[in-house]
Amino acid sequence: MKNILLVFIGGGFGSVLRYGIGNYLNASSTGFPYGTLVANVLGSLFIGLILGLAAKNNTLSQSQSLLLATGFCGGFTTFSTFAYENHLFLKSGDFMTFALYSISSFILGFLAVFMGLYLVK
User: Fold this and answer.
1) Contact at 8 Å (CB) between 109 and 40?
2) Is the pTM of this model over 0.85?
3) Total domain count, the chain
4) What b/e string do you get for 32-51 counting C-beta neighbours within 10 Å, with b at 16 or more?
């Protein structure tokens, strides 16, 4: 029960922060979902840092990892919104933005995880 509560609390904080970033950065004037991109890249960096710390000399406990990695990062990042936004780009025929958004999300996300892991070494 404790683990479920830790994931619940972390996920709540992550979701609220993602909501705020999305409201601030997802400008309807450009149509590009900067908020989702930033949340996913930052979440990738955070999970790299968190799991890197957890692996390094057992710096984080299992409870802390559940709260931060599974809960916070799970609530903060969003694959479902990313997929839906790409669906909208494809539906509207905006293939260039679809490609730019998809490729930049994958590349920046992977680089952010690797950067997080590198920073804690």
Assistant:
1) yes
2) yes
3) 1
4) bbebbbbbbbbbbbbbbbbb
Residue type at 8 in one-letter notation = F
Residue with tokens 């999300």: 105
What is the rounded CA–CA span in Å between residue 77 and residue 60?
A: 21
Q: Which of 10, 33, 30 is nearest to 21 (CA)?
A: 33
3 state DSSP class of 1: coil
Q: Which residues contact 5 (CB under 8 A, 6 or more apart)?
A: none
Give residue-wise pLDDT tens across range 52-107: 999 988 889 999 999 999 999 999 999 999 999 999 999 999 999 999 999 999 99
Task: In whole angstroms, give the CA distance from residue 91 to residue 47.
Answer: 32
- Give residue for tokens 């790409």: 86
Residue showing tokens 């890249």:
41
What is the span of the domain harbouring residue 14?
2-25+33-119
Q: Quick check: helix, strand or coil at residue 26?
A: coil
Helix ranges (H only) for 1-121 are: 2-25, 34-55, 62-65, 74-76, 79-91, 95-119
